[in-house]
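INFO  loader      accepted 1 record
INFO  loader      residues=358
INFO  predictor   begin
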Amino acid sequence: MQEEEDRISQLPDDILLLILDKIDIYEAVKTSMILWKNVWRSLPGLRFHFRPDTTPRLVHLEDFTIHSSFVSQLLSHRDAAAAVHDFHLLFDGPTPDPQCPCGVDREFLDECVLYAINHGVQSLRLHWPTYRKLRLPAAFLTCETLRELELRDLFCPVKLPGRLSLPNLKTLHLHTLFLGFDDHHHRMDPFSGLPQLEKLTLIRLVCDGLVLIKAPKLSLLQIEDYSLELKEISAPLLTSFTYKSSNAWECPKLNLPILEQVYLDIHASYIENHTNFLSMLHQFGNATTVSLTSNTLQILECEFGSSEQTPTPFPNVKCLKVMKGRYVNPIVCPSVINDLTRTLNCEVELSPSVFVSE
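INFO  predictor   done
INFO  writer      dumping tokens
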């Protein structure tokens, strides 16, 4: 066994780093310090995944203090000349203790973001509970190396001091309470400084004045439980669109000429304006693969039942997929499926948890 360890130790540092990059960072540091001395100081992937005790309980402030202390010490002892490809701060656990609502302090998050940016980060992910307002540093706004940005499950508002200008960003995932901009123009068109953006996910996002999404290279768009006033989406290369909400779609101007796949989950118990609901569906008429939940089909059943002459909103559909909804009995009426598949050669796929009524 000792001989095998010695053989591994004789490998070049680049190979040792590849090995360490595949395991948990805590184990990577421990292993490197015991066997390979200071190799860990050049790790390109800094992925800190906080998994608290599995016992059902609230997370206390001291939990974050212990973990953030480890992160800060690692950064201070790391090779200052070594690049960082991935910097991930991920929290995976229960809700923070309401008696300590501050979560982790903002200074720690600022320290991490600045360190990642100053070391050429390509993938930056923050999934870290904090109730204090997070103001991302100005250096973040013009990071030329960033390819992927994910802000997930932040319970605080995120404030941007100016215009996002990330020339190489390809993937953006925003799942946060509120996204704010100092300048009114940037609130109107916040993604105009992301020319390479290909994948955009907006979940439970509140943003004052966000009305435009213009992304010339966007191919995948997901919007879920949003609170936005969107007046225009222009994505000429978009092929996949996912929409999950209790509200019908309200976007008067859509430019999605080559849209192929649509997933819709409208899980309201009722829709006040049925005309707007059908208009929303007709905006996705180019789609050839359409996935609808049983919730959405129940609303459609009411609409198609009111008029046999109602045109199908998906005239180009080749494959209709029916998925289980969130809140209703997963039983769908065959008539609404027939109305949606009036085109020839349309395949219908039912998920195992969905049933068609007799």
